[in-house]
Amino acid sequence: MKNVLVLYYTQSGQLEEIARTIAKPLLEDAEVSVTFCNIEMVKPFPFPWKKASFFDAFPESFLQIPSEIHAPSQYVLSKKYDLVILAYQVWYLSPSIPINSFLKSEFAKPLLENTPVVTVIGCRNMWALAQEKMKALLVATGAKLVGNIALVDRHINHVSVITIVEWMFTGKKEKFLGIFPRPGVSDKDIAESSKFGTVILNHLKADSFTSLQTELVANDAVEIRPFLIEMDKKANKMFKIWANIIVKKTTSRPAWLKGFNIYLLVAIWVMSPIVYILHLFTYPLKYASIKRGKSYYSGV
Ligand SMILES: Cc1cc2nc3c(=O)[nH]c(=O)nc-3n(C[C@H](O)[C@H](O)[C@H](O)COP(=O)(O)O)c2cc1C
Q1: Cis amide bond preceding 48, omega within 30
Q2: Which residues contact 206 (CB under 8 A, 6 or more apart)?
Q3: Which domain of life is it from (predicted)?
Q4: Burial (0-12, 13-18, 19+ Cβ within 10 Å), 8
Q5: For atom 16 of ligand 1, which residue has the closest CA?
């Protein structure tokens, strides 16, 4: 009998749906026991978000400052697992506060130490550098990262910005104004993600995860868009400055968060199109490093 733990946090339910779909082939196998664990915050984040709370989550998300979580049940904590599937969302280019809080809590090490972990990301589209931060968090718990699956909104970057904001602020995963595409990960991509569960199951039963990521990648588990990685790197540098200033503010914090809001609008709607044009022109010159980056970020 193999024991698998599926850990996740979700606000809209999207990440739970993804985690459960991926876990389906494991659930259907008589030799595998699957336990689900939803990470819960002592002070829950609102959903749908209000604009102020959405930006208020920025400094602590980016600086990876944990908050208190509820202890997972005794049932979850009492078992030793052969594999952990850790499903997380990206908040401000970093693993979300609930996931970061779990990984920095006293509960993470006993559950993850010396245990193979497959990370599953469900986000808008910018996850590459968040996964680098995830790698460091997993190393600190003694976990062994063996696979990564990233499900994203496949629409044009700026379209997904508009639709996700609408989704986060209304709580409705619907076509904005009836003309925009539905936000988030598509139903098709979610439904098809059970194929990753089948790949994981085969490796679990073979007691070897050595070639798991290669096989996941061959099944389109990750799609690397070089422009998004370039933006992710640039934005990380700027977010670091903003977050470190804002986190030290007390009474002037709301005003600084408004300033960050304006910066973000300018970065997305003015700077990013310019970076995109430059990216296209310099693409042939940077081809070799882009290729190296693609291979690196596809791996674990
Ligand atoms: C505060 C906040 C910040 C976010 N930042 C990012 C981000 O930097 N990159 C990204 O691809 N998605 C980002 N997202 C989208 C989430 O990763 C995720 O797709 C969405 O919140 C739905 O997840 P759920 O399962 O918790 O509902 C953000 C969402 C929130 C609420």
Answers
A1: yes
A2: none
A3: Bacteria
A4: buried
A5: 123
CA distance readout (Å), 290 to 145, 214, 279, 284, 298: 24, 19, 11, 10, 12
pLDDT tens figures, 59-70: 999 999 999 999
CATH architecture label of 2-227: 3-Layer(aba) Sandwich (3.40)
> Tens digits of per-residue pLDDT, 177-220?
989 999 999 999 999 999 999 999 999 999 999 999 999 999 99
User: How many A from CA of 89 to the centre of ligand 1?
Assistant: 6
Nearest atom in ligand 1 to 16's CA: 25
Our mutation pick for probing the ligand 1 site, out of 123, 186, 222, counting the most ligand atoms within 8 A of Cβ, is 123
Measured CA to CA, the distance from residue 168 to residue 68 in angstroms comes to 23
Which amino acid residue places its CA nearest to atom 27 of ligand 1?
12
Contacting residues for 153 by C-beta, under 8 A, at least 6 apart:
124, 125, 160, 163, 164, 183, 184, 185, 186
